Amino acid sequence: MSGDFLFQAVIYLLAAVVCVPIAKRFGLSSVLGYLLAGIIIGPYLLGFIGEEGEDILHFAEFGVVMMLFLIGLEIEPKAFWKMRKTIVGMGGSQVALTVLLCFGVLILLGYNWQSSVSIAMALALSSTAIVLQTLKEKNLMDTVYGASSFSILLFQDIIVIPMLAIVPLLGTAQETAAGGHDAGHVSLLDNLPIGLQTVLVLLSVVFVVLAGRYLPVLRVVARTRLRELFSACALLIVIAIAYLMELVGLSPALGAFLGGVVLATSEFKHELESNLEPFKGLLLGLFFIAVGASINFAMIIDSPVRITLLVIGVIALKAVVLFIVASIFKIKIDQKLLIAVGLAQVGEFAFVLLSFTNQLGIISSDQLDLFLVITAISMTLAPLLSIFNERLILPRIGTKESEEKPMDTIEKKHKVILVGFGHFGSTTGRFLRANGVEPTILDHDSSRVDLLRKLGFEVYYGDATREDLLESAGASEADILISAIDDPDAVLEMVQVLQHKFPNLKLMVRAKSRVDAYQLLNAGVTHIYRESLDTSVRVAEEALHFLGHRKYTIHRQAQNFKKYDEESLRRLADKVLNSEEYIFKVREEIAQQEALLKEDLKRGSIEEEDTSWDSASMRARISGDSGKVKE
Amino acid sequence: MKKILILFAHPRYEQSRTNRALIEGIRNMEGVTIHDLYENYPEFNIDILTEKDLLTQHDVMIWHHPFYWYSCPPLMKQWIDIVLEFGWAYGPDGNALVGKTALNVMTAGGSRAVYCAEGRNHYTIREFLRPFEQTARLCGMEYLPPYAVMGTHGLTRDDLNAHVDQYQELIRSLQGADMEVPEGDACQFLNDLPILQNTKTE
Prior knowledge:
The complex is a heterodimer. By secondary structure, chain A is mainly α.
């Protein structure tokens, strides 16, 4: 390992670590931070990286493959099917219209038709990274705006694959350049007859689908309970799919997307997400840095007016097309504006597509630089434009909030995460479901997860003490997290993570015993449910009934007893904290019982205190008293 | 300013239109405590000490409820049974509530016309509310005529809004020192008070 490599790594990471938080600080997306980092360390400012940026760009493109896999994971085949109309309709018309208009304008500007087509295709795509990130941050995924944006982006993410396939066909004129590129991607099938090729391609796709559905690799790996092995396995899946696709001459991104969709219904979905997310994030980060470093500033300085006009033109054209498409789909005016402004930027796929076209020799390096600059600037402007739109334009037009809340105030969309689906959690989950609340369920026992899924439950596999897994299960958007885990230590560990990372999440925690409850109370949890309290009191209640007590009287006493016990629990928790025996649970348990029994003794029999409907004491009082008498 | 305690009982609050509008209309008024019984005591285990404290701290107690089978919902009856204790609210030394004011605020599906000797329900609202009236009297409280929203099924949005305004105005009047209510049959409902009529015409 050379010092040079380490130096480079330090430069890249340092630039990212410095720039991204600054961008976040100003409310801009992290993409901008990375781009900025790239610009700063790039050849035009500090000059730390030069030509090798190109190679890094190539390597980091794998981040896009991973992103597509993760996007695929987000889309269950069923949901995908339901959205097909908006995806194909809105996405299709947006891409088609934009490509057409851009093509016309480019031809008018004097570009040849090949470069016009490829540039127009690149410009039609919007930035999935920027838009989805913003939508998630602002919790807008469920709105019309969010759903439509997602549909359009999804269509673009899919259409980019055929686009990448079309581009080399345009390049046939420049045989030498295209051939040179293809040499790097020699397909094993090149020498086979065309029929056999097709069969092999189809077989490989079928293989991916079947393997995703029926190969128990993930389950076997999960049983080992080795976290890093699962990460390795997740990486292996994506890389293997990409490699297989490349081998048969298909787009790796398409394969990864397909693999993702196949695994979207798997119980390992969240676990896969949380394992791949950091890799994807880093690779995309690296990708954006490389992009930033490749922006040709000399060009901006040379022709500032031309570039400004082009940027404005592209954004305006895209916005107008989006507005028209949204109008066709009868979307309200304010949502329409959000869509039009939100998706008007040129996206990261343009980098891939344009660089690829350049490698094929379809567009010149100057043209490449020009449109890379435009893409980067439009991405930089995107968040700023959205802020402008939301603060200044939207308040003046569009729908105000609805006049009157509908009768049903219980919101269906309340998100609940249920951790642990054993005998306790399953009952909790069933009752929630019975009332129309579908919790996201996490469980760490893969055999149980498997069984429950066969019964039709939506259960995910994972270790809930991990922050990233909680994150991908939606802990930052959820309202409530219910912990039904058996292991008290795991509960405490999870509680600490949750309180630290998701302070707004309401925690409802099952406690095994009184001492566990003390620990949770002292950890700052307020909603604690001791699993034995209700049942044990109910047994005593029934026993007293068998001994001849009236049920309602005893039931009221039981209610009071539980209330009293909850109060004493909270009262005694402090003492426990200061006690040296805190760690010795068994001894503590006995000491606690002693204290409780003594308190009960002092309090006396509870039935004596019950004065409601007590005609006996009333009679006694009246016969000895000459006061007012109730008739 | 007199302090007002709304003892509110509705077993299906989320489904109620009229009561929800009324309660939401006064929710943020100063000096008004809304005590939602069904929300606080879903298992009917009313905390007597808490309730006594609440009563002690307020000057006016409003039993706010829908009219079910010519009376209040069961949890409110439970509340009356348990909280208004012998020896505290009535009986020997039972003078904790003496001098306070009590009244019913209620909603009913039937119109005022069906609640009379000739009507389908045969008795007037005032007659049905006698148990409340006498309960208040036994506790040494002044009992005011009820404020009633009648014919709730046929209420238009505007009618409802007018009632919400009236309820607010009623609360404000109760908070003031000198609210004049005519004695006896002259005022069957607080709805008929001249001060409330002003708001209705708006």
